[in-house]
Amino acid sequence: MSTRGGTLQAPAEVRPEPAEQAAGPSRLPLVVHILAIGTFLMGTTEFVVAGLLPEIAGDLDVSVARTGLMITVFAVGMIIGAPLMAMLTLRLPRRLTLMLALGVFAVGHVIVALGSDFTVILGARFLTAIATGAFWAVANVAATNAAGPAAGSRALGLVGAGAMLANVVGVPLGAFAGQLTGWRGPFWALAVLSAAAIVLIARTVTHDGPAQRTVSVRSELTALRSGRLWLVLAACATTTGGVLAAYSYISPLLIGRSEVQSGSVPLVLVGFGLGALAGSLVGGRLGDHRPHTVTILAPAGATLLLLAISLLAGYAVPTVILITLLGFFGLGANPVLMALAVRFAKQAPVLASALTVSAFNLGTAVGSWIAGLTLDSSLGTTGPAVVGTVIAALTLIPTLAIALLQPRRTAAAVA
Length: 415
What we know:
Elements: H1 30-47, H2 53-60, H3 64-67, H4 69-88, H5 94-114, H6 118-147, H7 152-181, H8 185-204, H9 210-213, H10 217-221, H11 227-247, H12 250-256, H13 265-287, H14 291-312, H15 316-330, H16 334-344, H17 349-374, H18 383-394, H19 396-414
């Protein structure tokens, strides 16, 4: 694997719990941190809506449940956009792809900030999501290349931490700003910041090596033959879908059930974001050494936490604590799952990375859609947490299968 701009090569077979691994670099390259800034903007725009649902619904004269479609449509756009744009831009320089994605991202936010028709706004969110999917898929591969094989999960953990930091800083600030200046203000800010990020990408992402320019769509599609890859993708969908089914409607739960004041909701979002940030960094670091431990324990913990939220939602303090812990466990396995997908796909890292983005957002779209339906059921505002519990529990099926299959493959190879 080239560490600067070359093609991501297939690492050696993943062992379930390797006793030793080559030590990675003590400090990750600057470009990995810059790419994390990009995912920070992407994570902010995806979930800032969760903290502004009542304000957006009131201004556009739509129901809170329907306003939640702004999250669902964004997820659908990433499902389609990540693999589609990964294939369409396969032979474009990665730096150019990242810059173009940020440009479209900025335009989409300007349309939302100016829009008054809900359908037009949903269309702009879809456009923005396609650009986000393209950026994220290429950023994952660029970060892994820059970090090298011994620090791949750690690099992906940092890139993912950009999105997690969005929940700590971006989403709460967006919620505060939306309450003070109107919900359109955060979208204007994101448009400006994404335009500025184009300059940073241009300065730090290196030119591609010659091998990347000879890659073909056909070679990338060979990734689809890996059964282990599909198990990883299933885990990506369920682990994220379970957590974000609940998180997408956390504001109605806190205000309507836990009786938290609306002005305090952004602070709860900070707690979730801090947990998610720590989980992404810790999970990424542990994932280079104990991948299966992380991918089993993290969703198991998230399932138990979601169940506890469902049962204790009427109590404010326990609910806030549980939401913070949910951030840590719920998204901690994501960088490890992405790294496993790239490894199992062997010579097709770009498509594998794109498919993980699609899987994460497929889970988000389905989970948030089902969760939104439960708001009008007898479950009320606790419905999303109940839905999240069931979906998160399903993650253990593919992650346990991966862990059980790996020793057999290793033993067969030794024999």
